[in-house]
Amino acid sequence: MTQMYITLGSNDLARSRRFYDPVMEALGATFAFKYEEMTFAYKFEDGFFVWITKPQNGEAAHAGNGHTAGFFTATPQSVDAAHAAALANGGSDEGAPGPRPLYGPDFYGAYARDPDGNKMSLVTSVKPGE
Asked: CB under 8 Å to 56, separation ≥6 — which residues?
């Protein structure tokens, strides 16, 4: 079995924790653990981890252009809840929840940025008319 993870940089771990706790909960992830003043992680049921960390090289964290962390979820309601949680906890809107026919007839998603500027895609698949 291949396990995967993503690491997202943060300049303020306490602020990031306030942001990510409700967003990850809406996506179905649970808080896994933390290493004080360095990193913390969330785990999804399938074993996927999301790490929020200060850069190991000691330089400032910054978002990359063209980088998006994609989080798939089971329902449009989960997408809506995660997007709302992101905006309510210091994130910024990059695209309100809704269908995205450009990506296919079943694509439903939303986009947000965390307080450090990391972009996330919140996605599910729905059949038209659902």
From this structure: none
Rounded Cα gap, residues 71 and 91, in angstroms: 16
CB 9 within 8 A of CB 62: yes
Q: If you ran DSSP here, which 8-state letter would residue 88 be given?
A: H
**Farthest CA pair distance, the chain:** 50
Report phi then psi at 101, rounded to 5.
-60, -25
pLDDT tens-digit readout, 35-59:
988 999 999 999 999 999 999 899 9
Q: How far is CA 59 from CA 10, 37, 105, in A?
A: 11, 15, 42
